[in-house]
Amino acid sequence: MKHLRLLFDNFTLALLAVIAIATWLPASGNAAAVFETLTHLAIGLLFFLHGAKLSREAVLAGAGHWRLHLLVFACTFVMFPLFGLLLKPLILPLVGDALYLGVLYLCALPATVQSAIAFTSLARGNVPAAICSAAASSLLGIVLTPLLVMLLMGVEGDSGSNLQAVWAIILQLLVPFVAGQLARPWLGAWVARNSGWLKSVDQGSILLVVYTAFSDAVVSGLWRSVPPSKLLGLALVCCLLLALVLLSTRSLGRWLGFSLEDRITILFAGSKKSMATGVPMAQLLFAGGAVGTLILPLMLFHQIQLMVCAVLAQRYAVRE
């Protein structure tokens, strides 16, 4: 538990530091073009490593639990968006139009893989099922998230541009992931032995993407359009959204008769939203300074979900 908290605290501090650097020293001009290229390379490396380290045997072991997986997918891609729409009268006055679109984008994202599995393992839940659900959610999100974004956020554009966005996501996220899976017989053992410092590659890739996105947003006037009162309102919205989802996933798992281990998996896999997928996907779906504003709810929600779920996992872990 201490190691998890230390990791989350360090990453939170690093994220805040990157935002501060992007605020005071944003990349612009030629430097912005260089960072954009580095960002695309980092995203490809990130998903290649995810593919190389994800065990197909473990995924297949939990693949047969279809009722659990359907519930997790429903929570991720149906319940979250419905909450985002139904809470609009409450959210909009607190955060304004731009950040509300960011909340909708957050609701459309797939579940995170690493933390969902880590918390399920810590809480002594059904880990193989968590691996299968989280990984499948991440892959489904490559197709479902752009479609949900078009539906929820009223994205205008011809079908060619929409298909181009989906194709760009497939090339940048899915292709490296598949390549990593194909390379797993040769790289899997090496990735497992070096999982400690490779975790820094994961986090470093996300920090690089955040810096690039926020630099663009700052140059476009992000902080002039997001006052402290809206940031506070956004924090309240994220806490409310997480509380509703945690209560709903817990209640649905119990009501549908799942075992305690399965309910733990549903709780942690069905309540997460992936920053590792969401930030680079925003780079592909949205243009210019809008990206910084749109990923701000995701970044805040991500930190809140980690802290809250760390406490919940520890409480489940100490049961008899």
Write up what this structure looks like:
This protein has one domain (2-26, 59-168, 228-317): Na+/H+ antiporter like fold. It is 85% helix and 0% strand. α4 (66-86) packs antiparallel against α11 and α6 (114-122) packs antiparallel against α7 (127-152). It is mostly helical and 320 residues long. It has helices at residues 2-24, 30-53, 56-62, 66-86, 88-108, 114-122, 127-152, 159-193, 195-219, 222-225, 228-255, 260-270, 275-285, 290-317. Pfam families: SBF_like (PF13593). InterPro entries: Na+/solute_symporter_sf (IPR038770), Put_Na-Bile_cotransptr (IPR016833).
Supply the key terms.
single chain, about 325 residues, mainly alpha, Na+/H+ antiporter like fold, 14 helices, about 0% strand, disordered N terminus, Put_Na-Bile_cotransptr, Na+/solute_symporter_sf
Please give the alpha-carbon distance between the first and last residues.
18 Å
Q: In CATH terms, what is the architecture? A: Up-down Bundle
Write down the secondary-structure element order: HHHHHHHHHHHHHH
Per CATH, what is the topology?
A: Na+/H+ antiporter like fold
What is the structural class?
Answer: mainly alpha
* Biggest sheet record: none
GO cellular component, one term: plasma membrane
InterPro entries: Na+/solute_symporter_sf, Put_Na-Bile_cotransptr
Pfam families: SBF_like
Protein name: Bile acid:sodium symporter
SSE arrangement:
Layout lengths: L1 H23 L5 H24 L2 H7 L3 H21 L1 H21 L5 H9 L4 H26 L6 H35 L1 H25 L2 H4 L2 H28 L4 H11 L4 H11 L4 H28 L3
Helix pairs in contact: 1-9, 1-14, 2-8, 2-9, 3-7, 4-5, 4-7, 4-11, 4-12, 5-11, 5-14, 6-7, 6-12, 6-14, 7-8, 7-12, 8-13, 9-13, 9-14, 11-12, 11-14, 13-14
